[in-house]
Amino acid sequence: MVTIGACVKEPGSSRNNKTGSWRTFKPILDKEKCIDCENCILFCPEGCINKDYDIDYDYCKGCGICAEECPVEAIKMERG
Amino acid sequence: MNISEKEFLAPGHRACAGCGATVGVRLALKALGKNTVAVSATGCLEVITTPYPETAWNIPWIHVAFENAAAVASGVERALKSQGKDAQVVAFAGDGGTADIGLQALSGAMERGHNLIYICYDNEAYMNTGVQRSGATPYGASTTTSPHGKESFGEDKPKKNIPMIMAAHGVPYVATASISFPEDFMKKVQKAKETDGPAYIHLHQPCTTGWGYDPSKTIELGRLAVETGSWILYEIEDGDFRVTYRPMERKMVDEYLLAQKRFKHLTQEERNRIQKNVDALCTELKI
């Protein structure tokens, strides 16, 4: 039902929508190679890489920006 | 720089894979922190973050219409002030909602001196409705309403210079930024926050759908715009103009243009004309 003023009361409720299903290619991070530069965290359009560099595949759309911006090529894009 | 580790824009939003706008908003909100109220004009950002009854925003957010983000932000700012609440008001609008449709509301808000930040995320056309040209579409770009072909060359007018129009209002802080230079951008957002009075930031943001390039290249394209001198990063603090980033060696504009489908139709001669214009401005600014 539509609320008065189309008010949405639950912050961040877009989490209900798992955009990971959009993905064709999946970023795989090799933590051994990672130099903790935070590029992938800052540049992720979904904000789905946390400070421990865990990628949330429920939401990752597979755009590949993280792999592209990784200075040490620690992220590889694989099908899936 | 004090940057929040928290995310204020939740995932699950409907932005295209590789969207630059959401990167910009995430960075801005990280710099501003939790105590922020956001206002959006109609546009990509509004549509992708709030497919009713869901919202991606983890902070209070309001959308009213295409033309009045700055007017709504003014009202929110005054309401918070009269209630004695200390929160930063930030308005996000695209280039269409800023350069064309929202210009009078923005001008009014700047003139009245409200204590708010207005961030224009500029992807250089109306992307949400299918890539129609806006006042901020650059010279030469092909869009659905400025197509290239036998009868038309693509966009035949230069990009409207909104940050300088804002500077002409005499507001205390005006800056340009790029999502590809996050530290520079976030510093500017924090300066805007510290500013007493209106602050305007014009954020350049590549769009994979409208510009025609692979989604993984969003940040690379933004960087190329700056490295070629096609987009210049500066700030104007109380009237003092300062370039905040100078490329070590300026790249040729061709490198930026040829990486995008919207400029693919340009002949060498036309690209040279664009290069000449960029050279003239960069020489003036010693870039």
Keywords:
heterodimer, A: 80 residues, alpha+beta, two-stranded antiparallel sheet, 2 strands, 12% helix, elongated, B: alpha/beta, eight-stranded mixed beta sheet, 36% helix
Task: Summarize this structure briefly.
The complex is a heterodimer of chains A (80) and B (287). Chain A is α+β, with helices and mostly antiparallel strands and 80 residues long.
Mean pLDDT of chain B: 97
Mean pLDDT value of chain A: 96
Portion in helices of chain B: 25-40%
Our count of helices of chain A gives 2
The percent of residues in helical segments of chain A reads 10-25%
Estimate the strand proportion of chain A.
5-15%
Which two chains have the most extensive interface, and how many residues on each?
A-B, 36 and 38 residues
Distance between the termini of chain A: 37 Å
Listing every helix as H and every strand as E from the N terminus to the C terminus, the arrangement of chain B reads: HEHEHEHHEHEHEHHEEHH
Main-sheet strand order of chain A equals 1-2
Q: Total strand count of chain A, please? A: 2
